[in-house]
Design a protein that fits this description.
The structure is a single chain. The longest helix is centred in the C-terminal third of the chain and has 34 residues. Helix 2 packs across helix 8 and helix 4 crosses helix 7. This protein has 8 helices and 3 strands, in the order H-H-H-H-E-H-H-E-E-H-H. The protein is 61% helix and 8% strand. It has a single domain, classed as Arc Repressor Mutant, subunit A, CATH 1.10.10. It starts with 17 loop residues before the first helix and ends with a helix. It has a 3-stranded antiparallel β-sheet with strand order 1-3-2. By secondary structure, it is mainly alpha-helical.
Length: 201
């Protein structure tokens, strides 16, 4: 299974999911600072929050979210609402339950989120022709214009975070992030298969 479509970070490429793909900056720090190839590999001290993969990923993501939200405060939307719009921009026509899985929140919470976006004229629910009990989610024309503005602010946040990193370094980071994705996906699939096999016994 290959890595997800992680967009290149140069040439004005779009950021499709600010809240996940911007973690590439953490990889930059981890590869270029923690592992210093100056006559030998420096082994990081994982007790130091600045050299711990989990702490760094969380902290960098938090800082980039704050940076983005300061730029986007005039949109009048919450972080969760913008995140939902970003996912729908890539996956129009999905069901609410699918969006809930993507956002990693409860379906009832997603329903309330979509209610608010529908009230603002940004999202519309359409009947699912294959299931009369379900609805499909689509962005409105108004939301399309807003998404374009979100990408602009996201790009500015990305540019600030990546100051000092060459295009070549960014390419290395994208490759590293893709490898991490593959590793964790395989581990998750193996664990799921093991659990399924145990339950069948």
């Amino acid at each position: 299974m290959g890595a997800p479509a992680i967009h290149r970070l140069q040439g004005g490429a779009k950021i499709s999911d600010l809240w996940s793909e911007l973690k590439v900056v953490y990889i930059a720090y981890y590869i270029l600072i923690i592992f210093k190839f100056d006559g030998g590999t420096k082994v990081p001290s994982f007790r130091d929050p600045k050299q711990n993969i989990g702490f760094l990923m969380k902290d960098v993501t938090r800082l980039m979210r704050r940076n983005f939200m300061r730029r986007a405060h005039d949109f009048g939307l919450t972080q969760a609402q913008m995140q939902a719009l970003a996912y729908l921009a890539r996956n129009e026509g999905i069901r609410q339950v699918t969006l809930a899985e993507m956002l990693e929140i409860q379906p009832i919470t997603t329903a309330r989120l979509i209610d608010k976006l529908e009230e603002q004229g940004l999202v519309e629910r359409r009947p699912d022709p294959s299931d009369r009990r379900a609805v499909l989610l689509y962005l409105t024309e108004r939301a399309g214009a807003l998404i374009d503005r979100i990408w602009v602010h996201a790009a500015k946040t990305r540019e600030e975070a990546l100051v000092g990193l060459s295009p070549e370094t960014q390419e290395i980071l994208v490759t590293a992030l893709g490898q991490m994705y593959d590793n964790l996906t395989r581990a998750e699939q193996a664990q799921s298969q093991t659990e399924t096999a145990s339950a069948d016994k």
